[in-house]
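Entry:
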Amino acid sequence: YGNQGATCNLALDHTQALGIDHGGDSWLTCVSTLGQSFILDGRKLKSINQLYNKRVAGIKAGKAQGFWNDQLADLTEKRNRVMRDAINKAARFIVNHCLEHRIGMLVFGWNKGQKDGSNMGKKNNQTFVQIPTGRLKTRLQQLCEADGIDFIETEEAHTSKASFLDRDSLPKYGERPVGWRASGKRGKKGDGLGRGQYKTADGSRINSDCNAAANIIAKVATQLGINLAKVGRAVLNLPKRYDLFKDLST
């Protein structure tokens, strides 16, 4: 689809949307109003960052602040090439999906002030934060503009906690009403539900990242006239997972 945007955008349906939730192990989770869902796996990307940080820390150990040498420069260039490749593959894959299915809107969840280098603690800084999701968002915007897809950025407050299937309200960041609580529960390691799972009010289990991606569309659905009728339990339960380095090509 790289050179087909001008042709494809004539047939795009701008009432259909693809919502994107970004994270760590599941770098990009996508849910569409056509009843489709998929995940671009981020585990290898996290591993690359962790190894890079470990090797850099080892080389800098005992050295003066600001120490830099050719070995560090080579490591950083190799790591950055991998990140650029991942960004290009992921952005092109997502936009191609929209073009193939005539989806005219892409809704990306992103909190104001969020950036790749935020201080979220040593462990998170070595995994999630240093994955260049901000640059991926910029690349998606560029491709969407070139291919005639509307790119919408929305804040993502409460999208992970709220239950999409129970139609929980989604207050904006800093505007949560007193007494607001989610109908369901997002699983955590060791809590019996488990990471990656979300339990709705009736006890049904769905993929927690798909729940968040659907809520990201719901954030703007009323404003943009988006119909979410096709986003049901089955869509949120079994997303197809893609390996960035095996399944995707630019």
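The longest strand covers residues 13-22.
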